[in-house]
Write a structure and sequence with these properties.
Layout: H1 4-18, E1 43-48, E2 53-57, E3 63-64, H2 69-81, H3 83-89, H4 103-107, H5 119-128, H6 133-148, E4 154-155, H7 157-166, H8 168-179, H9 187-198, E5 200-202, H10 204-215, H11 229-242, H12 248-254, E6 259-261, E7 266-271, E8 275-280, H13 291-304
Antiparallel strand pairs: 1-2, 1-8, 3-5, 4-5, 6-7, 7-8
Helix pairs in contact: 1-13, 2-3, 2-5, 2-11, 5-8, 5-9, 6-9, 7-9, 8-9
Length: 310
């Protein structure tokens, strides 16, 4: 990308151009607190390898990361337990099913979740972190604070309670997994960690900073290693194959940037060796991805040739 003001203006124009898409989507309502989001919001931040940050639209808006945290906890679990243990409990394949689907758990044998980006897989991953729920949440927050360089990041208590109260499908998934010996211990404790991580809140600027660490093979802009590059490589592969729910294939073709979305309307995107990108647009399409956010990334990718499949 070129000079500072050019990119800044470009982002501004792309937000203006794509904001109309927000009216075509719907905010998630299955968690009542998420239903309160303003559907017309659209914002983006891009951070380059020099630490320059470019933002446009509603980039000051805080939102909960939801499924975006699945990438972070996966990396933490691999760092703490090793790749072998993690992938004994969760697979590496896309499902083609919605994020909260239970169907493949019953039809595949052994019934370990197909990948760590779906709810069942993410619950299996948090079950591998050792310690009390508080200790586990604290370690997830610590990693996120290191990646963003923002010590104030925490989870949103109201969203957490809302998730906890309405999380029966996740509860069902977790009990199913325990019944089949994929997870052990207290289901409620694992879910507490899972719901709290989903409720971690930040702005697109923070998301762009997290993205930059992944784009920079696990190092911050000063070159300090936060995550080993071998672990980051696994995260990027999952972002490509399963990061955009059951629209990951189409997104790879149209946008081609490793990304992970969440039902709060956020998207974490990573252009390896170049940019960390954060997007917010709470109005979702029928797959659960930010409808205007995808259009914005599609334009950005095509203007600046950001696809990794060149
Ligand atoms: N907390 C959400 C759930 O499990 C995360 C969903 C998502 O962002 O995909 O229902």
């Amino acid at each position: 990308m070129e000079g500072r003001s050019k990119l800044q203006n470009q982002l501004q124009q792309l937000v203006e151009k794509n904001r109309r898409w927000t009216s075509k989507g719907k905010v998630a309502t299955y968690i009542p607190e998420l239903g309160k989001a303003d559907p017309s919001i659209l914002g983006i931040s891009v951070m380059d390898m020099h630490g320059n940050l470019y933002s446009a639209g509603d980039y000051k808006q805080k939102f909960t990361l939801q499924s975006i945290t699945k990438v972070i906890t996966l990396m933490l679990a691999i760092m703490e337990r090793g790749m072998e243990v993690v992938f004994e409990h969760v697979g590496m394949e896309p499902t083609g099913d919605p994020f909260n689907s239970i169907v493949k758990l019953e039809t595949t044998s052994p019934s370990k979740p197909l990948n760590p980006m779906i709810n069942a897989g993410a619950i299996a991953v948090v079950s591998l972190l050792e310690g009390t729920p508080d200790e586990r949440v604290e370690r997830i927050l610590r990693l996120i604070r290191q990646m963003t360089g923002n010590p104030n990041i925490t989870y949103n208590g109201r969203v957490y309670h809302s998730e906890h109260q309405t999380g029966d499908l996740n509860r069902a998934l977790a009990f199913f997994l325990r019944n089949h010996g994929v997870i052990h211990g207290s289901v409620e404790e694992h879910l507490e960690v899972y719901f709290k991580q989903s409720s971690i809140e930040m702005t697109t600027e923070d998301v762009a900073r997290m993205g930059l660490v992944i784009a920079n093979e696990g190092k911050d802009i000063m070159g300090k290693e936060i995550i080993p590059s071998s672990v980051v490589k696994i995260a990027k592969a999952f972002m490509v194959t399963c990061g955009m729910y059951n629209a990951s294939g189409e997104f790879a073709i149209r946008v081609g940037i490793p990304s992970k979305s969440g039902v709060g309307g956020g998207i974490l995107s990573v252009v390896p060796g170049k940019y960390g990108i954060g997007v917010i647009g709470p109005a979702l399409d029928d797959k659960g991805n930010s409808i205007a956010g995808i259009k914005l990334l599609e334009d950005l990718s095509s203007i600046y040739h950001l696809t990794i499949f060149n």
